[in-house]
Amino acid sequence: MTKRIIYVTDGDAAAAKAVAAATKTIGIGCLTFSGGNPTNCTYEELLKRIMKTKDEITVLLFDDAGQPYEGRGETLMVRLASEEGINVIGALAVASTERSGDWTSVDVSVDRYGKLSEQGVDKEGFRDIEENRIHGDTVYCLDQLSIPVIVGIGDLGKMGGRDDPKRDAPVTETALRVIIEREDTKDDGNKRTNVNEQLEKER
């Protein structure tokens, strides 16, 4: 059976709690095994756990801990996306403080108030001046992969308390629901343009 997967590009404790709370509300699976800061599991261990899940959709956490380009988390993301029996249906691109680092294009963002926006958002979940772009430290590879829906979002479990796991992480929940709802309505047959490589060529 094909495993439907959602990537989350943040793996710290707050993100893990937020994703756990949101997925419980929605009724989908969550594996925090690949989380951490940075991601520290092996590919074989992760794949084994994914294949044991019985959930229709499973959310995975990855983190590069600020390492530029493809770090530990992204290396696993790229490899897993090409695995037979794995279907990555979407990703939450989590914003970071650093704006000079990697960035990715997104289809839509969810701000700290749970509202959808064509603009990107910053770490606090406030709308950014740039459209359809998120700056983060675990997002470099997203444009290389054939991911149907990429949603930008602020720092999971935080955003001034508006995504507090004790409140069931409503911002994270909204972003995950956007992916699930849009999964069957978008067809990205071709890989996206790798915006980071494109930027390097222009420099």
Describe the fold and architecture.
The chain is an alpha/beta fold and about 200 residues long. It has one domain. It is built from 5 helices and 11 strands; from the N terminus they run βαβαβαββββββββαα. The strands form 3 sheets. The chain has a 7-stranded mixed sheet with strand order 2-3-1-4-11-6-7, with helices on both faces. Strands 5-10 form a two-stranded antiparallel ribbon. Strand 6 (about 110) and strand 7 (about 115) form a beta hairpin. The longest helix has 14 residues, at about 15-25. The chain is globular. It starts with a strand and ends with a helix. It comes from Salicibibacter cibarius. This is Stage V sporulation protein AE. Pfam families: SpoVAE. InterPro entries: SpoVAE.
Considering the chains and any ligands shown, give keywords for the structure.
203 residues, 11 strands, Stage V sporulation protein AE, SpoVAE, single chain, two-stranded antiparallel ribbon
List the helices and strands and how they pair.
Layout: E1 3-8, H1 13-26, E2 29-31, H2 43-52, E3 57-61, H3 72-81, E4 86-94, E5 103-105, E6 108-110, E7 116-117, E8 119-121, E9 127-131, E10 133-135, E11 149-153, H4 170-182, H5 195-202
Parallel strand pairs: 1-3, 1-4, 2-3, 4-11, 6-11
Antiparallel strand pairs: 5-10, 6-7, 8-9
Helix pairs in contact: 1-4
Please estimate the helix content: 25-40%
First-last Cα distance = 45 Å
Total of domains: 1
Low-confidence stretches: 192-196
Strand content: 15-25%
Biggest beta sheet summary: 7 strands, mixed
Order of helices and strands: EHEHEHEEEEEEEEHH
Global mean pLDDT: 90
**How many DSSP H or I helices?**
5
Order of strands, widest sheet:
2-3-1-4-11-6-7
Nearest-angstrom radius of gyration? 15 Å
C-alpha geometry: globular
Work out the number of β strands.
11
What structural class do the secondary elements suggest?
Answer: alpha/beta
